[in-house]
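S1.2 Input.
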Amino acid sequence: MELTGNKYARGDWRKLLATRRGTILVATICALIAAAILIFAMQRYRHNVVAENNPATVLVASGTIPKGTTGDAIAAQQLFKPASVAGKQVRTGAIADTSQLHGKVTTADILPGEQLTTADFAGSGGLPEQLAPGERAMTIGIDPAHGMIGQVHTGDHVDVYADIEARNAPPFVRLIMVNVPVLTAAESSSSGGLTSTSNQQNQQSNVTLKVDDHEAASLAFASDNGKVWLVLRPANAAATPLSTISVASILNGNVQGAGR
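S1.3 Output.
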């Protein structure tokens, strides 16, 4: 029965096409289908053109973001700025929300003005992922005043001064490291409110710094044989000259910036 039905259906189409009216009807149906396809294609094209030209907000680096910087530090220090770019200029995986940075770490330097993308980050597998072959992570104990505990945060950069009192030699303070990244830092001292200097010096908080394999020994010596100061650097800090300050240099006025 089905074959018979198909036979009759084919016969009906043949009869329809055999007449002028039927031919015009079929042609009209085909034209309508073609027009619908064309309209659909044009709408898709317009949609794509609008999407390419519509501005999108993405995050771009406001300055150089070094390799190994955590996404949390980027968000906390606002090392980015939102930028509006044309849709066709948005890079694949562009980041538009700081929540996407949580728990991530940069895998390469990000230059000023570059869009932050998911390809620039990897999951943080701990401190080793943040270290280059010649770098080391080193934790020192430091009191709240010398370490600026609560004011120095993870992702900040500091200068490191060593206050050494050696036997049979006058005490001195020397700048031993410049522009050192802070890998982890205590967010606040253990007690709130005002404390005496002696109490502050008795309290210890841990700070982990990123140093090179040679600086690690200097930092260990200074931490064990004297006091270490951490001095917070701004993002646009000028070069810091290495210097040694002693009683003699202060008494003689040979201190850079003493006239300010």
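S1.4 Remarks. The radius of gyration is 34 Å.
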